[in-house]
Amino acid sequence: xxxxxxxxxxxxxxxxxxxxxxxxxxxxxxxxxxxxxxxxxxxxxxxxxxxxxxxxxxxxxxxxxxxxxxxx
Length: 72
Known about the structure:
By secondary structure, this protein is an all-alpha fold. It has helices at 6-18, 21-42, 49-60, 65-68.
């Protein structure tokens, strides 16, 4: 689904193209950090340790969670 007007998409693309690679990279890192904070906030605080790490991994990397954190 793409609900962005073509002229807005072109404007955003031009703004990103004008940024240095380092700036674009840092924006991506900050976006990931924010996404991770949202995921962590959605997991009950009672889930701790390896179970919490597994839950975070499941939300961010569903295809990899069983490989990264094999079932008990």
